Amino acid sequence: MATSPFYPPQRILMGPGPSDVSPRVLQAMARPTLGHLDPLFVEMMDEVKGLLQYAFQTQNELTMPISAPGSAGMEACFANLVEPGDKVIVCQNGVFGGRMKENVERFGGTAIMVMDDWGKPVDPEKVEAALKAHPDTKILAFVHAETSTGVRSDAKLLTELAHQYGCLVIVDAVTSLTGSELRVDAWGIDAIYSGTQKCMSCVPGLSPVSFGSRAVDVIKTRKTKIQSWFLDMSLIMGYWGGGTKRAYHHTAPVNTLYALHEALVMVQAEGLENAWARHQHHHQALKAGLEAMGIRFVVEEAARLPQLNLITVPEGVDEAAVRARLLNEYSIEIGAGLGALAGKVWRIGLMGHACNTKNVLICLGALDAVLSSLQAPIESGVAVGAAQAFYQA
Q: Where, in this chain's numbering, is substrate bound (predicted)?
């Protein structure tokens, strides 16, 4: 049976990811495919590595994109650093801390859980108590920017704590990379992973990772074989290492790497500090509009992610129906709550290319219109004006 080509509609992606992809990035993907060992492609790989080092703010030699989405970056960190019997303190304040626990246990480690409420950052005092209670801990693992709740934890402080007690750290930076301040070398982060589909405005499918010298030493002195062949850093570095001579490991997703290269060129051109400030600036405008409408934020301001806004659903409103109308009538995607927050909150993303004045005003106007038509208990007709007043101040 013959089928027609698939032509997706143009959406405004303001959920928890993926985010809108820059037209420049989409155009880069359409360039001619080279062989993955072609000398010109290898030159581009070296540029990608250097650009990722800038994005992570690191000089780590072992910095590269894993040829799979962010979950593979997570698994790469745990597969390479956790051996059977290792004790790992895992901080959980949302969905992705739970996935860290799964990884620890699947690689034979013991997960010591430090639990915080969803919507709250990781509590350093609880972490220090766990480190004191388990002096044989090898690794502290935590999420810098919890995608399920829009919470930012203090990665610098948590890393300092871990090192005081002789531990490595593994950090999830899927939603924070290029959207919030992140300094791998200055903060001493040992292993970190991210994804391309959030604040970098790139397509999904790659997972940037970086391993510091302490982590590399642990990988080199392992007593057991790394359980994943595909994610074995000692093998992948033969392909992603320096120089023009590369050992074949796998067929890299060539055109997707063109996209990442273009996205990182755009990050470098804007400047990291400017990108961080842009996300904060448009978050403040969105906040002004939502609060004028009477909608509350869940996360305290000090721990709030500008690129992922967790807001309460007004009383008596069917949150799924609102999301469906935003999608069908306005082509705007926002996210639902997960776990204990399901049905109670929305997650509005302001990530990368989607983080701009136009999207803030369109989203506020559409949300205002839909909620007003449902006679929701909000202040109608004021949200856009409040955001515009912020921009004009």
A: 347
∠ CA(178), CA(164), CA(140), 5° rounding? 55
With tokens 């040992």, the residue in question is 190
- Together in a domain, 326 and 195: no
Q: What is the C-alpha radius of gyration for the chain, rounded to an integer number of angstroms?
A: 21
Question: How many domains, in total, are found in the chain?
Answer: 2
- State which of 251, 269, 287 marks the end of a domain: 269
CB 175 within 8 A of CB 207: no
Question: Which parts are annotated binding residues?
Answer: 347
Q: Which residues are annotated as a binding site for substrate?
A: 347
Q: What is the span of the domain harbouring residue 286?
A: 272-392
Supply the DSSP string of 161-226, one letter for each residue. Answer: HHHHTT-EEEEE-TTTTTTS---HHHHT-SEEE--SSSTT---SS-EEEEE-HHHHHHHHT-SS--
Measured CA angle at 32 (ends 26, 40), to 5 deg: 110
**Buried b vs exposed e over 329-351: b needs ≥16 C-beta within 10 Å?**
ebebbbbbbbeebeeebbbbbbb
Going residue by residue through the chain (393 aa), what tens digit of pLDDT does each one get? 768 999 999 999 999 999 999 999 999 999 999 998 899 999 999 999 999 999 999 999 999 999 999 999 999 999 999 999 999 999 999 999 999 999 999 999 999 999 999 999 999 999 999 999 999 999 999 999 999 999 999 999 999 999 999 999 999 999 999 999 999 999 999 999 999 999 999 999 999 999 999 999 999 999 999 999 999 998 887 778 655 567 788 889 999 999 999 999 999 999 999 999 999 999 999 999 999 999 999 999 999 999 999 999 999 999 999 999 999 999 999 999 998 899 999 999 999 999 999 999 999 999 999 999 999 999 999 999 999 999 999
Q: Are 305 and 335 contacting, i.e. CB atoms less than 8 angstroms apart?
A: no
